[in-house]
From TrEMBL:
InterPro entries recorded: Anthracycline_SecMetBiosynth, Glyas_Bleomycin-R_OHBP_Dase, Glyas_Fos-R_dOase_dom, VOC_core
Keyword Lyase part of the UniProt annotation: yes
GO molecular function: lyase activity
VOC domain ranges (all copies): 7-126, 139-256
Alphabetic keyword roster: Lyase
Protein name listed in UniProt: Enzyme related to lactoylglutathione lyase
Record has Lyase as a keyword: yes
Length: 257
């Protein structure tokens, strides 16, 4: 892929029931998730498409995976120029390898890692020469904001800036909740980090853009999910919400009111 090093390039939902996930997210976000797996596929993996391009995929967790500790969640892929070099640098900086680097024919090279605080993510070098448009804060259905809830916000921010060339921008004082440190990827403000003792464990939370946040909140409830925070306005005038899908996976949306 031609995306710059450090750009989010793919989003993946790990789910036990891909058809239930399809019904929910198609209704709530406006995606089109594949109803079936392509013939000849060796795994149950279904593509997630917005109205104007691919955004990610749904990976079906098997019973054995769940018995060995896998659980439904959203994962973020960060594009890198060299997967093996990135894995080596991440481990040298205190991170760890969850799944060693491997190749998927015609897709690319991938590794699952975690940062020094334990938040998991993938690094990937795609096989295609075309740029991923999965992350585009201006387009409905695409990744718009990337929020890290962690045990040590300042150290985590420094780690990602060093590994991926991200840069710190404004730091927002959130009172008793501490500091919310915004960061830029390239020339776009695309996320923030915060120390959050109330989050179950360090993790990335991706916000997907929708056309209207209030109508999206109604669709969440109608489709069997829960709204756990919001809708609420944030600095800059945007609106956000946090929700749980029918399998209990936390997700987030952003958009106009």
């Amino acid at each position: 892929m031609s995306n710059r090093h450090g750009t989010p390039i793919w989003y993946e939902l790990m789910a036990k029931d891909p058809l239930a996930a399809r019904r929910f997210y198609n209704a709530v976000v406006g995606w089109e998730i594949d109803e079936s797996v392509p013939a000849g596929s060796t795994m149950d993996y279904r593509m997630i498409s917005a109205k104007d391009g691919l955004v990610g995929g749904v990976f079906t967790l098997t019973e054995d995976m769940c018995k060995n500790g896998a659980a439904p969640c959203w994962m973020m892929y960060i594009g890198v120029y060299d997967v093996d070099a990135s894995v080596a640098a991440i481990t040298a900086a205190g991170g760890s390898v969850q799944m060693p680097a491997f190749d998927i024919p015609n897709v690319g090279r991938i590794a699952m890692v975690s940062d020094p605080q334990g938040a998991p993510f993938y690094v990937m070098r795609g096989a295609s020469n075309e740029a991923s448009t999965a992350c585009d804060p201006d387009r409905a259905g695409h990744g718009a904001w990337h929020e890290l809830h962690t045990s040590d916000g300042p150290k985590a921010t420094d780690f990602y800036c060093a590994q991926f060339g991200w840069t710190k921008s404004r730091a927002v004082d959130m009172g008793p909740m501490g500091t919310y440190q915004l960061f830029d990827i390239g020339n776009r403000n695309l996320g923030g980090t915060m120390t959050d003792a109330h989050f179950p464990r360090p993790a990335w939370l991706v916000y997907f853009r929708v056309d209207g946040i209030e109508s999206a909140a109604q669709r969440i409830v109608a489709a069997g999910g829960k709204v756990i925070n919001g809708p609420m306005v944030v600095p800059g005038g945007g609106w956000i919400l946090n929700g749980l899908d029918p399998e209990g996976v936390m997700f987030a949306l952003t958009g106009t009111k």
